[in-house]
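Today's session is about reading a structure prediction critically. Students often jump straight to the picture, but the first step is always the sequence itself: look for stretches that repeat, for charged clusters, for runs of hydrophobic residues. Only then move on to the predicted structure, which in these notes is written as discrete structure tokens rather than atom positions. Here is the chain we will use throughout the hour.
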Amino acid sequence: MKPGIAPQLLVSQVKGTAAWLWDDPRAAGVVRVLDGVDEAERAFQDGARETAYLHLMLAAHFATVATFVPTDVDARIRHHAWWAMEEVEVVERAAALVDEVASWDVGAVSARVVTSALGPLSGHDGEWLGVRAGALGRAIAVGAEALAARLAEAIDAELDREERILVEALQGPAPRALAAATIVSHNLGDLSRVAEAWPKLEALTAHRPRYLRLGHADAPVLRRPFVMAGALNKALVAHENHRFLPLRQARGLRRARALLLPIGPWLDGWGEVVARHEALDERDRAEVVTALLELHRSAPEQLGCLRALAGVHRATRGGLALYADDLPARLRKDPSRGRVREEIDVEQHHFEARVERRYAVERARIARESG
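Below is the predicted structure for this chain, in token form.
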């Protein structure tokens, strides 16, 4: 395997976007691995046999994937690291590390979580589906039959769990239903992309269809709740939950766990937190407002940025006008005109009622068209 990001650099990237982890007892597991960077350094040049570097990449991914600046190790932990392993025992050790990282408390590192009686549902679950699919492909390729069976069982159990959470969520109000649909659609996409990328080996042929395009009506294995999730996500909220790249420029947002972005478009509460959080000063808040206004200009159909602005406006004495002098000249009039002005005057409960009506209409349409 070709060298990836140097371990010390990887840890510095985590600290650059999530330094607050070191103050959170819930993050003890991930911090322990990140603080053990010297072991990963020693393994860095022999990554095909030693798993310490993979452990570090998994920890970095866990720590940052729901932050504003995720570390760029996705392809390595899903593909490259596994296909560099030649020995069954190395694949087994690596798979055990995935189990460990997947057991950590996702609430420490993500605000994009749906709680349920079956445990938390988050985009992290999709990350581990994808990583386990990478491990499964390699386990089958090297003839590790027992490990392959365990990995397939773990993937299937997670799909069953997510399906049950989704079915329950779809019976409830739009915010919970659409949040679950968003997360599950993301997770199924992660799994499908890895299975699609498996080498064209005969031994993998029987496994691939089980994991392909599960959120689509043309999936080889049709699971209707997953198809419903995919259709609802595409129709209503897919454009609300991208990477929010302009917010990377507002560096103050990296100072506290409480500033992590939740699932959109329900961002009123997050905007209120931005307006009041002690880690931010007025210049920091102006940078956030600037980023949100830029986001609205680039994606005017996106409602989450407008609801975040409404939250900031509502929780700020003087409203968005307070930040006018610190905004770029081209944006200074935006809060007082057009769609921004209209939306910040809409109360949160009125906005949520509007989404609820759209959700009911779309769900009925999708159900009708799917028979």
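Discussion point for the tutorial: The longest helix spans residues 145-169.
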